[in-house]
Design goal:
single chain, T-box domain-containing protein, Immunoglobulin-like, two-stranded antiparallel ribbon, T-box_DNA-bd, 4-stranded antiparallel beta sheet, DNA-binding
Length: 111
């Protein structure tokens, strides 16, 4: 994804382990077209693609590690290929999307 999603994390327990995840959801229920040098609504959105949660490759890591520097999701790959077998995030072309960032405390999950 370009530009890559970057976030600075704060307020975590330094010793606890966390998993950082991201998914991408539709921002509205419209399809768009580019006409006369601007984006315009061109009808209802296509059916949503199967959702995939992207797990940051450094997960799990301690809160101290996550808070030390900005976290970038530069390895997240997008596609509009519904038959994708590479684990990419599948999106519909000509639609608006909103990334969602999640922090999950892993200590309880990993026990």
């Amino acid at each position: 994804m370009f530009p890559p999603f970057k976030v600075r994390v704060s307020g975590l327990d330094k010793k606890a382990k966390y998993i950082l995840l991201m998914d991408i959801v539709a921002a509205d229920d419209c399809r768009y077209k580019f006409h006369n040098s601007r984006w315009m609504v061109a009808g209802k959105a296509d059916p949503e693609m199967p959702k995939r949660m992207y797990i940051h490759p450094d997960s799990p890591a301690t809160g101290e590690q996550w808070m030390a520097k900005p976290v970038a999701f530069h390895k997240l790959k997008l596609t509009n290929n519904i038959s994708d077998k590479h684990g990419f995030t599948i999106l519909n072309s000509m639609h608006k999307y909103q990334p969602r960032f999640h922090i999950v405390r892993a200590n309880d999950i990993l026990k």
